[in-house]
Amino acid sequence: MTKTLTINGKIYPLDTKKTLLENLESQAIKIEFHCRDGHCGACRCKLLSGKVNYISYPMAYIREDDILTCCSKSQNNIKLATY
């Protein structure tokens, strides 16, 4: 079964080999970012459901229900909301 990435109510296929930011970019979804290693926090999104794994732990401040798309991947369906 195909995994999905839902952002702001729109559903896209999820490639589990890519970061969430790479998934969004491959679908031509514009999202703010300035790095790819968890330092700046510009790509912060609210995690509505699912669980992510970080390829490098974020150094930017994020709230408990936030994630950074630049350095996170998921093996399961994900629902996000942008700020």
TrEMBL record:
SUPFAM superfamilies (UniProt xref): 2Fe-2S ferredoxin-like
Stretches that traverse the bilayer: none
Residue ranges of domain 2Fe-2S ferredoxin-type in the record: 1-83
Pfam families associated with the record: Fer2
Keywords in alphabetical order: Ubiquinone
Name the record gives this protein: (Fe-S)-binding protein
Domain of life: Bacteria
NCBIfam families reported in the protein's UniProt record: PRK10713.1 (NF007985)
Family annotation (InterPro entries): 2Fe-2S_ferredoxin-like_sf, 2Fe-2S_ferredoxin-type, 2Fe2S_fd_BS, Beta-grasp_dom_sf
